[in-house]
Amino acid sequence: MFTLRSIIAVTIVIGLFGVERPVSAQQIEVRALVDETTIGDQEIVNYSIQISGADLNGVETPSAPSAEGLALMQRTPSTQQSMTIINGQLEQSISFGWRYQPVRRGNARIDAATVTVNGRTYTTEAISINVVDQVQRPRRPSPSGRQGWPFVVPSRPHADARRDIDSRDLFIRAVPSKRTARQNEQITIEYRLYFRDGIQLRHSRLTGSWDAEGFWREEFEIDTRPVPTSVVENGLLYHMIVLKRVAVFPTRPGTLTVDPLEIETEAYFPSGGGDPFERFFSLGNRFDTVQLSSDSVELIVQPLPPGAPSSFSGAVGDYRMRASLSATSVEVGEPVEVRIVIEGEGNVATLEAPRFEPAGVFERYDPNVGTSVRRDGRRISGRKSFTFVLVPRSNGEFEMPPVEFTFYHPERSDYVTITSELPELEVTGTAAPLAAGTTSAGLPVDDIAGIITDASSWRRIGERPLYRRVWPYAAVATPLLALLLLFGYQRRADRIATDTRFARGRLAHPLAKKHLKQAEALLRENQPRAYYEEVERAVVGFAGNRLNLAELGLTRDQLDQRLAQVGLSAEDRRALRALLEECDRARFAPILPDQSAMESAHERAAQIIVALDRAAQQTEDVSV
Amino acid sequence: MRPSFLLFVLIGCTLIASASFAQGVGVAVSYFDEGNRLYREGDYRGALRSYERALEQGYASDALYFNMGNAYFRLDRIGQAIRHYEKARRMGSDRPELTHNLEIARELTIDTFSRLPAPFWTRIWRSIVRATGAGGLFGAGLILYIVGCAALAVRIRKGPSPWLRRITTVTFLVGIVLVASGLAASAEVGSSPSAVVLAREALILKDPSGASADVVVHEGLVVDVVSSSGQWAEIRLPNGTRGWMQAEDLGEI
Predict the structure, then answer these.
(1) Interface test with B, best of A312, A448, A457, A483 (most B CBs within 10 A)
(2) Do A298 and A325 have their domain in common?
(3) Do A455 and B33 make contact, defined as CB atoms within 8 angstroms?
(4) Rg of the Cα atoms in chain B
(5) Which of A133, A585, B156, B230 is 20 to 30 A off residue A111, Cα-Cα?
(6) Does the ipTM surpass 0.90?
(7) Predicted pLDDT of residue A185
(8) Domain check: are A245 and A370 in the same one?
(9) For residue A518, what is the domain's CATH number?
(10) Domain check: are A274 and A393 in the same one?
(11) Using CA atoms, how far apart are residues B174 and B182, in angstroms rounded to an integer?
């Protein structure tokens, strides 16, 4: 039934906070709702199915849903249509209502209903009803007074029958986007005010000091004239507006708490009876001041995972970056700007400048920072720019280092590093000398000393180290070797000087060789007498020196006897005697020997010397 | 072979070697001068290229390394700057400019490791080696050793005398000790080289497999290289901590 009363009721509800009724969407919306979810066993529950946004001509009348613990009081539904033109747009809705009566105390349920609109079937949610003893329920208006609900504003027949504020009728709910997050990750919290159909509020204001300790906070811009949205919560129809939307960025890990949001408002709870015009014009007398508060929000904050790259400075979110140079060719001393822009979702306000370290020939000044934060969406986003001013102090072509920025991406659960390349910078002109103070030693203060032009002390590089070369060891060994030789020589010289036998023995061979060589020369000159003198001198001299004898004072027999004592064989002794007699003959006989006899004498002399030496050696070995 | 011929060959070889050395040094000095000119004009990259060409001739001087350190410093490559200053110092330079520039460069480094207290004899030993060099020690020892040998030779030839015995003992023993010290100093420099961290930062790992990162070091830190294995180098930090790092992040002094 489309009544003037219902239109007025709807209009009053729209008047909440002085806002307009929402313009419905053109999409079909089907919802089921009841007037109470807790009723006394003597009460009646009003159940309705609302269809809005559709061409009402295509709506088929639904059947009453089955119920458990409740009995349907009539099969034919009451029907209500409404049509409103708001801002030039037409909104239509139709409702079908039934009444159920409890059959027992305890939990009851109205099952899901199906509705066919334009040939398409929609299913509503089932609704649970709690049926309690009637004495536990406050007085309610008689069912007759509420006939036709919800097409009339909930009302009371008498002023003293006004209900106390129930937390189910009017409350604030804090809805965080997530309960567990990483440090510095964006979490949005929306504070929604829910109020039952028919309740009116005015003069609302925030009380208390909402705080979120341990968080960086960014508040979103919300509409100062919010449009209530109709929502069904647990089968009850509510209007909802967003009081506050805030983004919080936890600055430390742990379990952190966001304070509840508290408001004070004046609320009007309409009575069920009376003339609606009377109620409308007497609102001022029926508003009560109420305090509302949301629950506090507990968030679990996890630290960022290890393994962050060195360029990470705490940014969490999703960012993009670009970098540019104000010029690619400048003169020495002419400033050039490097502009780095980072934009994206996250705590833009606290972003630190990415690492940018140009070559030391550039004087780098602290960057100018510009921040722009967008608060009009459902996520905090924005842009931050860093403008470095560089002043080149030298000419040349310089490669600018790439700008590197790392952030933690919560969706990917990983660190993301983005880089932006800069073009090469050409610096022309000549550097002016730097003015700087000097120390007492003449060195510049806070700067390095200049270059050295002294071109001395050059050395070959890449040579083997000293200990791996040969010459140091040779240099050490050579004097030592020379000392050893000198020592041996000195010992030999000392012995020759003190030991006659040793000295004569050392001289025997060279002297014998010398005499034989001279004899050989005399042989070639054909001087037989002189030749035989040398041969005798060689043999007898060798015997004397080798055996340490005074050979000149010995007769031939004495010599033979001494040679026999040293072990010279009789044959060799005879050969010696024969050679000495041949020498005597050659020196004194008138007929000179021939050349062959002389050659034979030379050969025999050599053989006798060898035999003598062998015999002397054997004698020495035996004595030793 | 007559001694006079040997002497002739020796003198000839010496003259040829001297001429070759002088020619090589001459080219190196011309590049050195060119680098100095470019440095004064502010073209530090060009200066470095000239200094590198001087090095390519196979010769170096403490001034060359010092100037290279300056050019690297101007280009904000602190690791390379410290490395070349250290090279200049290793060549025996004790110029006050070198000490000053090293201090300035070290002030720009990040790492400040505590140093293990070295025994007093180590400090004395290092100061002597720094002052004389391994070659200086060896040369002085060789001279004393030869004097001792000569005294001993005189003693052998002329017979014992108290003063000759004293001279022989002192010079010979001191000479041998100095010669051995020179060789030991040379081996010490060759077997345990130092290096400078050239990367902006580098991880020090417990082992080359890269199991876990213990310490992060930064550009300009001077470390001792204990050993190397492929692309990895085992290093010892100033506080005595040992670890492995990528060899390419190091610049040997």
Answers:
(1) A448
(2) no
(3) yes
(4) 24
(5) A133
(6) no
(7) 94
(8) no
(9) 1.20.120.330
(10) no
(11) 12
Considering only the beta carbons, identify the residue of A360, A396, A456 that sits closest to B43: A396
CATH of the domain at A184: 2.60.40
What is this structure's pTM? 0.48
Same domain, A16 and A144: yes
- What's the rounded mean pLDDT across residues A143-165? 40
Show contacts of B184-189: CB within 8 Å, 24+ apart. B184/A467, B185/B129, B185/B133, B185/B134, B185/B137, B186/A465, B186/A466, B186/A467, B186/A468, B186/B134, B186/B135, B186/B138, B187/A465, B187/A467, B188/B129, B189/A465, B189/B90, B189/B134
A521 and A577, same domain (yes or no): yes
Angle at B246 between CA B241 and CA B249, to 5 degrees: 95
Q: What is the mean pLDDT of residues A118-123?
A: 87
Question: Over the stretch A517-530, which tens digit does the pLDDT of each residue have?
Answer: 999 999 888 888 89
**Alpha-carbon distance A40 to B18, whole Å?**
120
Q: Give me the domain span that covers residue A406.
A: 313-428
Flag whether pLDDT at A127 surpasses 70.
yes
Distance (Å) from the alpha carbon of A453 to chain B's nearest alpha carbon: 7
Decide which of A302, A329, A348 is a domain's last residue: A302
Do A615 and A502 share a domain, yes or no?
Answer: yes
pLDDT 10s digits, B87-122: 998 887 778 899 999 999 998 888 887 777 778 888
The C-alpha atoms of residue A593 and residue A582 are separated, in whole angstroms, by 9
What is the nearest CA distance from B126 to chain A, expressed in angstroms? 17
Given a cut of 50, whether residue A561 has pLDDT beyond it is yes
Which of A392, A410, A428 corresponds to the end of one domain? Answer: A428
Between A358, A455, A462, which is nearest B29 by CB?
A455
Average per-residue pLDDT for chain A: 81
User: Which chain A residues have a beta carbon less than 8 Å from that of B200?
Assistant: 310
Q: How many domains in chain A?
A: 4
